[in-house]
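Hi W., the adenosine-5'-diphosphate complex you wanted:
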Amino acid sequence: MMGTVVTVDLWAEDAIQGKAWAAAVIAEFARIDRLMSTYKADSELSRINRDAGLAPVGLGAELHGLIGRALALSVTTEGAFDITYESVGYLYDFRARQRPDVDSIAARLDAIDYRAVKLNADPRQIQFTKPGMRLNLGGIAKGYAVERGAAILRDVGVRHAVLSAGGDTRVLGDRRGQPWLVGIRNPRKQGSVVTRLPLVDEAISTSGDYERFFVEDGVRYHHIINPATGMPSMGVQSATVVGPDATITDALSTAMFVLGIERGLRIIQKLPAYEAVIVDDKGQLFYSDGLMVPAIAP
Ligand code: ADP
Ligand code: MG
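Structure:
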């Protein structure tokens, strides 16, 4: 689902009840995907992408809220997280090994600009103020769905659970007395991890250059786009963010990937509830200050 595998692990007294709760989480993912997918021509987001360049478009409260949060995160991350990256990003097809040439990027680069999205609260409307703008919520929707799924489980009284969608994971409570141990994948070695973090009631998101990519003439073209260049962001292999809200860890991990070690750690330092682990292009690990307590060895 959402281009990745969604898993739900939970503790329940009753197996049938537990399965029903897991199914409710999966149904919530499907609902969010129908709302926000750019692959579905009839999703609310596709309708916005089609029409918001022409005139203000009405939109539902949920999408309005999430787009608002995404735009705020663009400010926090100095533009590294920018859902308008899609203005160029739609020209990439990693499965088909397709990428735009320099002229196509140059012609559209100005349309990557979160400041040019006008979101109005009353009436609830969105408008693009530059030609050729498009939105893609791929860097935040999975975290949002994981957070929503966790809320469903919490509301029915589940106290121990792990939900994950690709690189985005949310743990509820602990693993019955022990912290959950969540591994950070080795970006260059499948099946191995560079470290594990002990987590209780937290979210963790990793953005990596190994999820969707192709290699051409020794260059790795992958799905995290630097909004400043319209090209895949270089210098980092993976970026992980830990914190209380999966919607935010999802967006911040994408942003840390784009920002790199120095700028990324400087910005995460300003967000006391959030910590980061970044793996640079030589495979070296960098931790934000709050994580300097040694993590458990792989
Ligand atoms: P994953 O999808 O592997 O969990 P991310 O959370 O980093 O990894 O999300 C990557 C997705 O985010 C891309 O597939 C794309 O849809 C979107 N994206 C890429 N670059 C940016 C960016 N600079 N800002 C916001 N979203 C982005
Ligand atoms: Mg992300």
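DSSP finds seven helices and 16 strands in the chain.

W.
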